[in-house]
């Protein structure tokens, strides 16, 4: 199984998710992710749009969760959107 890294796009039960957990944390069976959804209401800054498989998907930042690492499979990378994803988390946690 390929190791997942921060900003990788993985899938769980057909749902695309972005890994947002730092790569320097000690290993854990769970991994912190944010779902990418096609029809999620977007708020400026909080929910950037990230393309995946030719489709624009919304980062559903408020739905941040954890999933068992073993249940995820890597599909792509959203590293090109790292600043937008980090900014969305900052807005979620600090409001700015």
Automatic annotation (TrEMBL):
| Originating organism | Vannielia litorea
* Alphabetized InterPro entries for the sequence: CcdB (IPR002712), Plasmid_toxin/cell-grow_inhib (IPR011067)
| SUPFAM superfamilies, per the entry | Cell growth inhibitor/plasmid maintenance toxic component (SSF50118)
**Keywords in alphabetical order:** Repressor, Transcription, Transcription regulation
Return the protein name.
Toxin CcdB
Which biological process terms from the Gene Ontology are attached to this UniProt entry? Answer: plasmid maintenance
Any one Gene Ontology molecular-function term assigned to this protein's record: DNA topoisomerase type II (double strand cut, ATP-hydrolyzing) inhibitor activity
Q: Any signal peptide, and if so, which residues?
A: none
Query: Any keyword Phosphoprotein?
Result: no
Q: Which domain of life is it from?
A: Bacteria
Q: Which family does it belong to?
A: Belongs to the CcdB toxin family.
């Amino acid at each position: 199984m390929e190791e997942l890294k921060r900003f990788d796009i993985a899938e769980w039960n057909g749902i695309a998710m972005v890994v947002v957990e730092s790569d320097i944390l000690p290993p854990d069976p769970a991994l912190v992710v944010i779902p990418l959804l096609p029809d999620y209401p977007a708020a400026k800054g909080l929910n950037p749009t990230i393309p995946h498989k030719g489709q624009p998907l919304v980062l559903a930042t408020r739905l941040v969760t954890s999933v068992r690492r073993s249940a995820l499979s890597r599909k792509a990378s959203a590293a090109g959107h790292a600043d937008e994803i980090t900014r969305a988390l900052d807005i979620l946690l600090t409001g700015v």
